[in-house]
Fold this sequence. Notes:
Elements: E1 3-7, H1 11-23, E2 27-32, H2 35-45, E3 49-53, H3 61-71, E4 77-82, H4 86-95, E5 99-103, H5 107-118
Helix pairs in contact: 2-3, 3-4
Amino acid sequence: xxxxxxxxxxxxxxxxxxxxxxxxxxxxxxxxxxxxxxxxxxxxxxxxxxxxxxxxxxxxxxxxxxxxxxxxxxxxxxxxxxxxxxxxxxxxxxxxxxxxxxxxxxxxxxxxxxxxxxxxxx
Length: 122
């Protein structure tokens, strides 16, 4: 069962994304509210996949990616961003994120990206 770390400063999004992954047969091993927590949790849990919000307090998602990827080059991180943040997405991908999804998104889109990154045929 693939493991997932969900990172978002909004409780509603953490719960919604976690529920989606649970329904799809993934195990949500952690939930972080900012990039700093995400880096610490990634180190401790080394999940198969991370969903990472871009805009968060303390440390944003791009800064977190820049900390995770040098230590864990194979980390599979999907950035989740609001419309109009395309410039940030380019920076995130250049920093090592594997893909991105724009809010609001269809659950099927997130599932397709996650399954593709993990080689799942769910």
